Amino acid sequence: MNRVKPSTYESYYRCITKYVLPFYQEQGHEQISAQSTLNFSNQINQHQDICGAYKRKILTIYKTALRELLRGSSEYSPVLSAIAMPRVAGKDVQAFTMKEQRLIEKAVIDSQDKRLLGILLCFYTGIRLGEVCGLKWGDIDFEAGAMVVVRTVSRVKNFNGTGRKTSLTVGTPKSAHSIRKIPLPGFLLSLARKFRMDSSNENCFVLSDNEIPFDPRKYQKLFQAILKRSGVRSRKFHAIRHTFATRALELGVDIKTLSEILGHSNVSITLNIYAHSMFDQKKKAIEKLNAMYVMHSETSLFAVANSVVNA
After folding, report:
1. Mean pLDDT throughout 143-154?
2. Which of 3, 4, 31, 293 sees the fewest Cβ atoms within 10 Å?
3. CA atoms of 24 and 88, how far apart (whole Å)
4. Taking the domains of the chain in order of start, what are their residue ranges?
5. Exposed, middle or buried: residue 93 (CB in 10 Å: 0-12, 13-18, 19+)?
6. Among 256, 287, 251, 250, which residue's Cα sits nearest to residue 271?
């Protein structure tokens, strides 16, 4: 468990205990073989209640476990090659429209609840829920007009069998690329400076304003309450991140810059997630070229017509 983050371990644990172990406890599946592996991957791929992305996640974790179990075994290659990974089709990301975003922002400002500053931070920087919960006042450089993302907060299962079932953990972000420095818009700096006046301790978390981080699950509930108050249809908190990326593309931000702000490990991830938004931008670019052609054509025709009249 020390090799991976607690949230990652919990994810692996859930996949193994919910899908892999029950399969091998069934009669006829007690042994690991090419056939049992093929049967398991078929069962997962044909599962109607699991989305394609989660099917791929389950089978990837399963494959990783088999690699460790069968290392050096003659069954290594035939067993691993029997796993059929699902093809995951691209899907449209959930993002708020500009009108919905404005309604949410108004509800946040009108509420006077300082904890909701995090919603605006996410709308204008694209940081994740766990990252905004892990943001401390010391991470904001008011002179440079930027913030650093160096930690994330998550609620994970306790595996020691004592105390509560879950606990809050503060750890590093999703990947090395997720540790990043992001410039902040002027209006956000002004709001943050205003809220910071209540707290002089740089070790205090921004959302909780003390040295204990705000629970991401509780913050999601706050977010849902704001959506209801603003009359906007319920979405997951992650829709804010998608909204930031969509707005950035609409404003012409280049994909490399956007990828670095989002903390993606490479540009291809950004391209794959926001392919639909990128296509919309391509359509707008072509429409501009079409308008240029029409304008030049009309100008040329007008010039020809004048020359004929003058002749």
Report:
1. 94
2. 3
3. 26
4. 6-81, 98-235
5. middle
6. 256
Q: For 34-63, b where at least 16 C-beta lie within 10 A, e where not — what string? A: eebbbbbbeebbeeeebeeebbbbbbebbe
The length of the chain, given as a count of residues: 311
Q: Phi and psi of 155, rounded to 5°?
A: -105, 120
Residues 6+ apart with CB under 8 A from 133: 118, 152, 153, 205, 207, 213, 214, 215, 216, 219
Answer for the pair 105, 115: CB distance below 8 angstroms, yes or no: no
pLDDT digits (tens, 9 = 90+) for 247-289: 999 888 999 999 999 999 899 889 888 887 777 778 888 888 8
Phi-psi region of 38 (alpha: psi -120 to 50; beta: other; left: phi over 0): alpha
The domain over range 98-235 is classified in CATH as 1.10.443.10: yes
**Phi then psi for 9, rounded to 5 degrees?**
-60, -45
226, 216 Cβ separation under 8 angstroms: no
